[in-house]
Amino acid sequence: MIRGRAPSGATLKITKSFTLWTSPVGGRARPVPTRLSSTMVVPRGGRFAWDVNPSVRPKSPFTADGVRPVTGLVRERWTLTCTPRHGRGGTTVRVLVDRGREAAVDLRRCR
Questions:
Q1: Are 96 and 77 within 8 A, CB to CB?
Q2: CA pair distance 44, 27, nearest whole angstrom
Q3: What is the pTM of this model?
Q4: For residue 79, what are the CA distances in angstroms to 52, 67, 70, 86, 93?
Q5: CA neighbor of 38 nearest in space, from 28, 52, 54, 49
Q6: 7-32: b (≥16 Cβ within 10 Å) or e
Q7: How far apart, in whole angstroms, are the C-alpha atoms of residue 11 and residue 5?
Q8: How far apart are CA 79 and CA 81, in angstroms?
Q9: What does the pLDDT look like over 56-102, one tens digit per residue?
Q10: What are 18's strand-pairing partners?
Q11: What is the DSSP letter of 87?
Q12: pLDDT at 54
């Protein structure tokens, strides 16, 4: 959950990019570029609560060099961009949100 304040009517966009790898069975592992993105409009009053997926994912057992032991999670930050209603300027912040946790952001300077 990301909670915060931003100008009413601003568009929030959350993204993260990473590379997954195919299984190397029958040849080399191949990269699978992956980008996750979602948007929302800040409601009247400027306060928002946004349920997003956790910023962690299991480490892939596959890499460009083949198979590796799987150990733990990859801790990735989301990139959160606020674009004002008029479409000019804005603010970008990095947010780490683990499963079952909340992050607070103040985007009121997004003007």
A1: yes
A2: 54
A3: 0.82
A4: 12, 29, 26, 21, 6
A5: 52
A6: beebbbebebeeeebeebeeeebeee
A7: 12
A8: 7
A9: 777 777 777 777 776 777 778 899 999 999 888 889 999 998 878 89
A10: 34
A11: S
A12: 76
